[in-house]
Structures are given as C-alpha cells and as structure tokens.
Amino acid sequence: MIGLSYYPYWLEGNPDYTLSIADLGQNMKDMAARYGKEVMVVEVGGEDTKVQNTYDMLVAVQKQVKAVPDRKGLGVIYWEPQGARSWSKYGLSAWGADGKPTKALDAFLIK
C-alpha cells in the first residue's frame, strides 16, 4: 500500500483545495497503475476555523480515492481530528472550542 498526505493548508500561494484536488486524484491513479499497489490518504486535515471548507475538502478527497481504478483507493484518515486548538494549539483538527467534533467529520458519514 502507498500512503499519501494531503494538506492544502500548506500549499504555497493559495491553500484552496479546489486548486489541487485533481492533482491528488491523478497522483493516486498514477501510483496505483505504475506500482500495482493500493493507495490511501493516510494524513489529511483542514482548518478548524473553516468547518464547511474542511467538510467539502474531505468529501472531495474521498471522491478522489473512490475514483482510483480497480478499487485500489482504500480510504482516508484524518490526522489528529481531536487535537483541539484550545489545548494542542493545532489549527488543523476537526474539534471545536466547545470540546466536540465539528461538522467537518460528518464527511465520513457519506457513503
């Protein structure tokens, strides 16, 4: 299996995931075909202050994983979703200031 990280937040110039999501999909398709291995996004995260954007990004990432031919796209793992900024200072979690998961994690309920 090949594991990929995807953090639009860290992209230089413009962290808008819509500008790089197709590249993620192409990379996964290329690696699956080139190496004959399954692929998985093993690290992903979005800004905790932009809940809807993070939700939308997670839905888009899952669609790209599902689009890998021959069922070689295996899944998505959110890195440190419970790392609330209030105690961890990590701004890419999916936890709110109220100590509860944000709507962003609902993206994992979509089938």
Automatic annotation (TrEMBL):
Belongs to the glycosyl hydrolase 53 family. It comes from Spirosoma utsteinense. PANTHER family: ARABINOGALACTAN ENDO-BETA-1,4-GALACTANASE A. InterPro entries: GH, Glyco_hydro_53. This is Arabinogalactan endo-beta-1,4-galactanase. It catalyses: The enzyme specifically hydrolyzes (1->4)-beta-D-galactosidic linkages in type I arabinogalactans. Its EC number is 3.2.1.89. Keywords: Glycosidase, Hydrolase.
